[in-house]
Amino acid sequence: MTDLPSPLLSIARGDTLTDQAEAALRHALLTGGFAPGQSITIRALSTMLGISVTPAKDALIRLITDRVMEWGPRRTALVPELTLTSIHEIYTIRLALESTAAVCAIPFFDENAIAELNSICEQLEKAHVRGDYKNVLKNNYDFHFAIYRRANLPILLSMIEGLWLRMGPSLNLLYQTFRKKDWARSGTGFHQEIIAAIRSGDEQGVRDHVVADLTNGRDRLEANMVREPAETVALLSA
Q1: In sequence order, which residues have a C-beta less than 8 Å from that of residue 74 and are 6 or more positions away?
Q2: Nearest-angstrom CA–CA distance, 49 and 122
Q3: What is the DSSP string of 143-162?
Q4: How far apart are CA 51 and CA 131, in angstroms?
Q5: Which DSSP state fits 82?
Q6: Any bridge partners for residue 40, and if so which?
Q7: Angle, CA of 69, 93 and 153, to the nearest 5°
Q8: H-assigned helices in 50-83
Q9: At how many degrees (to 10) do helices 84-105 and 133-148 cross?
Q10: What is the pLDDT along the chain (238 residues), one digit of tens a residue?
Q11: Where is the GntR C-terminal domain (predicted)?
Q12: Distance between CA 95 and CA 197 in Å, rounded?
């Protein structure tokens, strides 16, 4: 499949075109805009972003160099398909890094920042009610990184983002789970518990709820790895 996802927005002139193309690709990967195994042609990418072939190719090369993507046949780039072993390894690291980032962020939260998290949760819940899984993934990313960025630990944030770049596409495999009635409780319920713990300054509570949230996602994802839902293809082309 070579069609590009809607989260891949056109870019404006400013920084180098390669930098902006890379940023657009990274955002799409982080928010589940690509499916595992999806192929992307250089020409299709340049057309989608409204730029020439050269910066589009250079942006792909950067991500391939970072092992976020890989070369495929006939001048295409491929989104890697993760194995159960790699999924488990990534989540093991995420549990440690993301719970630490969330705890470190607690002192930097005020009521305005708490309100921002609540707003994101509301948007996520509305997207779930609409059956809009693309925005569920986007809002989930927004929620987590609104917390992690407040820790003011750029090296840690970069490490977390690197793991999300590898994980983002595989989150599309949770689409079947997303459709189940218990998803809203297990998906957004943990977020509300994280917010409550941040507001009360409960470091252990924040750590525990972040770990519970990620563990829930990991378990559901691993359970879905044995099947590839047909809805994933329809989801990305919608």
Answers
A1: 41
A2: 30
A3: HHHHHHGGG--HHHHHHHHH
A4: 33
A5: P
A6: 77
A7: 90
A8: 53-65
A9: 50
A10: 445 555 555 555 557 899 999 999 999 998 888 888 899 899 999 998 889 999 999 999 999 998 899 998 887 899 988 899 999 999 999 999 999 999 999 999 999 999 999 999 999 989 888 888 888 889 999 999 999 999 999 999 999 999 999 998 888 877 656 666 555 555 678 999 999 999 999 999 999 999 999 998 898 888 877 655 444 433 444 4
A11: 89-216
A12: 17
Determine contact, residues 39/30, Cβ cutoff 8 Å: no
* The pair of three-digit structure tokens given for residue 113, joined into one six-digit string: 């920042």
CA distance 222 to 82: 11
What letter represents residue 200's amino acid?
A: S
Please report, as a single letter, which amino acid is at residue 59.
A
Q: Could you give the residue ranges of the DSSP H alpha helices within 70-228?
A: 84-105, 111-130, 133-148, 154-167, 175-178, 183-200, 203-224
Domains and CATH numbers, the chain: 17-78 (1.10.10.10), 84-237 (1.20.120.530)
Cα–Cα distance, 235 to 56 (Å, whole number): 25
Supply the angle between the helices 203-224 and 84-105 in degrees, to the nearest 10: 160
d(CA 212, CA 171): 17
Residue 32 and residue 164: Cα distance in Å, rounded?
Answer: 9
Find the length of the chain. Answer: 238
In contact, 6 and 27? CB cutoff 8 Å: no
Q: Measured between alpha carbons, how far is 52 from 115 in angstroms, rounded to an integer?
A: 41
